[in-house]
UniProtKB/TrEMBL annotation:
CDD domains: TM_PBP2. The chain crosses the membrane at residues 39-63, 96-119, 131-151, 189-208, 229-247, 287-309. Belongs to the binding-protein-dependent transport system permease family. It is found in: Cell membrane. This is Sugar ABC transporter permease. Residues 94-306 form the ABC transmembrane type-1 domain. It comes from the Bacteria. The keyword tRNA processing does not apply. Keywords: Cell membrane, Membrane, Transmembrane, Transmembrane helix, Transport.
């Protein structure tokens, strides 16, 4: 009897006030309970402080003149940014950063696709092999750089011994301005291609089988299935992997600094390394702050472009 009255009461009440039915906005989404915000507020404040305070301090530092003795000569406006745009070392660091970005990202994506397809095949020992492939990515970049310093050693390194075994003259891997950027790119490709492959392999295994079956009924070959079915479906996954690697490559620092410190002749002097050297070696904190702000804007711009591209891919496919 009580249950019958409750049902009659619910049928007569407005939709937003029925028992067990939450109110929704015009889009159909349930609003967050007001009681949640007091619990989230401390985390929001701490996160905002950790993000905003360094950015605001860097902006204030870039607009002032911080002397090597720690004193601040006062507000100088945009003079540090004007100096930056007139600095040939700044443009060289941008060129080196973009070179490493394009070379490493292209090779890692292509090799990641190939290795990802192989890893998606169900063969005995696949899980063990996947775990072994993660070793370069989870190893500290400093340790990776030190190991590759030994590999690139001109006299005792394994790289020149391999070249000598096939009849090629030894190479000064990190001492030649023309070869050093490629040597750094090889290290990054070796370290991060397995991670790209594992992300893409997971995406391949999650693909639905119905589109491939329909394409097979229509007489599509394996190449056409890969080109017109698998690749479009994989684009959201590939875009996420590319975005992660792009942000890391733009901020490239630790491996470069351990191996070359930006040399020889600034041939591996990325924007992040140049900012570090300006702050802690040249003792130009305000100019280094302007350089790091330009790096931040570059990261935000690239991340925004990839986010827009990823959303477009999701809408199209």
């Amino acid at each position: 009897m009580t249950e019958t009255r409750r049902r009659k009461h619910d049928r007569g009440a407005p939709p937003g006030r029925r028992r067990g039915v939450s109110r929704r906005d015009s889009t159909g989404a349930t609003p967050v309970s007001r009681g949640v915000w007091p619990l989230m507020l401390p985390a929001i404040i701490v996160t905002g402080a950790l993000v905003l305070m360094p950015v605001l301090y860097t902006g204030w530092l870039a607009l002032s003149d911080r002397r090597p003795n720690g004193e601040n000569a006062g507000f100088v406006g945009t003079s540090n940014f004007s100096q930056m745009f007139d600095d040939p070392l700044f443009w060289n660091s941008v060129r080196v950063t973009l070179f490493l970005l394009v070379v490493c990202l292209t090779v890692e994506t292509l090799l990641g696709l190939a290795l990802g397809y192989l890893l998606s095949i169900d063969v005995p020992g696949r899980r063990i092999f996947q775990g072994l492939m993660l070793i370069p990515a989870i190893t500290a970049s400093v340790a990776v750089a030190l190991v590759w310093l030994l590999i690139y050693d001109p006299t005792l390194g394994a790289a020149n011994q391999i070249l000598d075994a096939v009849g090629i003259d030894p190479v000064v891997w990190l001492g030649d301005p023309d070869i050093a950027p490629w040597s750094i790119a090889i290290v990054d490709i070796w370290q991060w291609t397995p991670l790209m492959a594992l992300i893409i392999a997971a995406g391949i295994r999650a693909l639905p089988s119905e589109p491939f079956e329909a394409a097979g009924i229509d007489g599509a070959s394996n190449w056409k299935k890969a080109r017109h079915v698998a690749l479009p479906l994989l684009m959201p996954v590939i875009s996420v992997a590319v975005l992660l690697r792009t942000v890391d490559l733009v901020r490239f620092f630790d491996t470069v600094y351990i191996m070359t410190q930006g040399g020889p002749v600034n041939s591996t002097n990325t924007l992040n390394v140049y900012g570090y050297r300006s702050a802690f070696i040249d003792q130009e904190a305000s100019y280094a702050a302007a350089l790091q702000l330009s790096l931040l804007l570059l990261v935000v711009a690239i991340a925004g472009v990839f986010t827009w591209w990823r959303r477009r891919q999701i809408v199209e496919y």
